[in-house]
Structure formats: structure tokens, C-alpha cells
Amino acid sequence: MWSYLVAIPLLSLLVILQSAVVSRIPLLEGQADLILLAVLGWSLQERVRGVWFWVLIGGLAAGLASAMPFGVLMASYLAAVGLASVLKRRVWKVPFLAMIASVFLGTLILDLFSFVAVSLLGTTLPLFDVFNLIVLPSLLLNLLLAVPMYIVIRDIAGWLYPEELKV
Predict the structure, then answer these.
(1) Which domain holds residue 153?
(2) CB of 43 closer than 8 Å to CB of 88
(3) Spatial distance between the Cα atoms of 109 and 12, rounded to a whole number of angstroms
(4) Are 27 and 73 in contact (CB under 8 A)?
(5) CB-neighbour burial class of residue 99 (10 A; exposed 0-12, middle 13-18, buried 19+)
(6) In this structure, what DSSP letter does residue 30 have?
(7) What's the distance, Cα to Cα, between the start and end of the chain in Å?
């Protein structure tokens, strides 16, 4: 229950930080996605519950604050967390490796969904320029922030779901 109460203010704060601070620090045309990093970090924690709630709240909050068509961010976060859940089962002994792989694939999914959505709206963007100016810089920024975000989310998860001591 506590994770549900923490998710709303934490993800809202991350949306505010992303729209006010992170969006002002682009690398070429790419930007980091704090919500993606937070929901991926939460989904890779061992004892947590409410992963899909975090994804829905994060997608809703990011969708309301973004100019992207509503639902695109939600769908990309759902796909990324679904893939992270599969990776968690495969690479469960090394959570940092799972986080890096999830962020890499999640960023590609997010940018692919965004590219398709913008293309369906009639905007023509050269694929080579999108890859070089948006995808690669976003990937680099997300990978740089992946480990610090994982550590913060791990601490929050440890606070909400303390490990049981066996006597």
C-alpha cells in the first residue's frame, strides 16, 4: 500500500523535474527520461509490488505533461517494463546489468513509439537524422542516469519493503 502512496508524489516530482530541468539540458536533440528510468528501476526490484501501478501513474503523468500524443508514452512504458520483467527473470543475479539492458532497450522502444506516432500524424522526419540527433543522445543520457536512478529507487524500495530477518 505504501508504494501506491509514494508513487504519485514521486512520479509527479520526476515529471516536474523532467519538464523544468532535464528538458533544458539536451544533448543535441535528445533528452533523458526520468520517468522511464524510475519505472524500470522499480520494476527490477526484488520485493516490490505495484509495478504496473507505477507504470500507469508514470505514463499518465508524463502523457499529460508531454506534447506527444496521449497514450504513446504509456504504451512505451508498458512495453519497456514488460521487457524489463522478462530480463529480470533472466539476469536476476546482476540487477545493475538488468537495469542497463532495460534502459537501453526501453529507450529504443520509447523513441521508436514516438517516431511512429509523429510519423502517423504526418510529420516527415529523416530516419538517419532521428537516430543520430535524438535516439543516440537520449540513449547516452539515459544510460548515464540509469545507475544513480537505480540506487535511489532501490533505497526507496528498501524503505517501503524492508528485508525480513530470519532468526
Answers:
(1) 2-160
(2) yes
(3) 22
(4) no
(5) buried
(6) B
(7) 26
Look at the alpha carbons of 126, 70, 37, 46 in this order and tell me if their dihedral is positive or negative: negative
Any idea which residue has 523532467 for its cell?
18
Q: Is residue 167 part of a domain?
A: no
Q: Is residue 165 part of a domain?
A: no
Cell matching residue 157: 524500495
Question: Would you call 27 helix, strand, or coil by DSSP?
Answer: strand
Which parts of the chain register pLDDT below 70? 1, 92
User: Is 166 part of any domain?
Assistant: no
What is the domain count for the chain?
1
DSSP letter (8 states) at residue 48? -
Using only C-alpha atoms, the chain has a radius of gyration, in whole angstroms, of: 16
Q: What is the DSSP string of 114-135?
A: HHHHHHHTT----HHHHIIIII
Is there a domain that residue 109 lies in?
yes
User: In angstroms, rounded to a whole number, what is the distance separating the alpha carbons of residues 85 and 10?
Assistant: 21
Q: Could you give the C-alpha distances from 167 to 46, 47, 100, 157, in angstroms and in order?
A: 21, 19, 35, 23
**3-state SS string for 69-111:** CCCHHHHHHHHHHHHHHHHHHHCCCCHHHHHHHHHHHHHHHHH
Q: What is the pLDDT of residue 38?
A: 95
